[in-house]
Amino acid sequence: MKQNLHVAVVGATGAVGVEMIKTLERRNYPVGRLTLLASARSVGRTLPFRGEEVPVQELTKESFKGVDIALFSAGGGISKEFAPAAVEAGCVVVDNSSAFRMDPEVPLVVPEINGADVAKHKGIIANPNCTTAITLMALYPLHAAFGCTRIFASTYQAVSGSGARAIEELKRQVEQIVRGEPVTGEVYPHQIAFNVLPHVDRFLENGYTREEMKMENEGRRIMHHPGFKASVTCVRVPVYRAHSVAVSAEFEKPVSVEAALEVLRNAPGLDVVDDPANNQYPLPLDYAGRDNCAVGRLRKDCALDNGLAFWVCGDQLLKGAALNAVQIAEEWAKLD
């Protein structure tokens, strides 16, 4: 593995950026020098890394001189503007936005599934959508064993997917309701506290949202499965940071619950929590802050041929974003 790397984090002060820094330290990534980059308004702040306070610098197109690898999590517009400058400076970019995910020249990677694709990069490697990554942690092992043709899914997405401001909005609204005060909102079009919103990302002409189409579009690339189909309803729920997904999947081969459990118990990065008789199933509250995702509630789908229904949970800020990005960086560091 490469050593003594100069690593940059773009969007360092955001919810995902903070998790990236923590994850780099926790997983002992070979950082020789860490550069934290954000907008001008964050200059002057510091963030902890390995017992020291690292100052935040303003992001410019000259920020990447001498940087080996940069983890971007500052939105698609920033990625489109600054990632090419980073690559031109000789830096490899791991991008957490949607800017490059569908670019055929850019690998879209979940390391447990298609980590070898990292070697195909031409300067940029894309991190997938959080809900897609969490869902595929359980779906892909089943696809590899039984051949998934299509899924129907509903998501239960935490407010962390909308950033730090959304987390604060949920906290504030809960406090306002408890105190009997008027509820105020800025991030979401409706109150999120004690509510659910069947609206994540913007609506498309086909009636789905962009978020809902990401499962099919990105899933095809990650699983190398161009015929994969996914009909998804994405729902924002008043949970702080772990996503959940209810999936009904149809397979080419017959699949039993017992055979599926055996496959899932051997899948990397995945816990099986499946004992409904004792009320044991994955909960977002339990998987907030954990690296692994979890799958449970496995049952034969009674509406699909060769169908299986299951429930997946995973931390949106970790496997859905920061952890997966660092794992991609680890795969890159292993390359000659």
Describe this structure in words.
The protein has 336 residues and is α/β, with parallel strands linked by helices. The protein has 2 domains: 5-128 and 321-334, NAD(P)-binding Rossmann-like Domain (Rossmann fold, 3-Layer(aba) Sandwich), CATH 3.40.50; 132-316, Dihydrodipicolinate Reductase, domain 2, CATH 3.30.360. It has helices at residues 15-26, 76-88, 111-114, 130-146, 164-178, 210-222, 257-265, 284-287, 318-334; strands spanning 5-10, 31-38, 46-49, 52-58, 69-72, 92-95, 124-126, 148-156, 229-233, 242-251, 270-272, 293-300, 307-315. The strands form 2 sheets. Strands 3-4-2-1-5-6-7 form a 7-stranded mixed β-sheet, sandwiched between helices. Helix 1 (15-26) links the parallel strand 1 and strand 2. Helix 1 (15-26) packs across helix 9 (318-334), helix 4 packs across helix 6 (210-222) and helix 4 packs across helix 9. The N and C termini lie close together (8 Å).
